[in-house]
Amino acid sequence: MSDFDLHHHGDREVGDGLVDLAVNVRLPIPPAWLRAELAAALDDLAAYPDSSAAAAAVAVRHGRDVGEVLVTAGAAEAFTLLATALKPRFAVVVHPQFTEPEAALRAAGHSVRRVILAGDFVLRPESVPEEADLVFVGNPTNPTSVLHPAATLRALIRPGRLLVVDEAFLDAVPGEPESLASQALPGVIVIRSLTKTWGIAGLRAGYVLADPTVITLLRAVQPPWSVSTLAAVAVVACSRPAALAEAELLASAAVADRAYLVAGLRALGIEVLGDPRGPFVLIRLPEADKVRLRLRESGFAVRRHLPRPRHHPPTPRRPRPPNHRRLLHCPRRRPARCRHNVISQFLRDRHLSTDGEGYEPSATNAAAVPTSTQAPSTSPVIPPSRRTQRASSTPVTR
Ligand SMILES: Cc1ncc(COP(=O)(O)O)c(C=O)c1O
Question: Which pTM was predicted?
Answer without folding.
Answer: 0.79
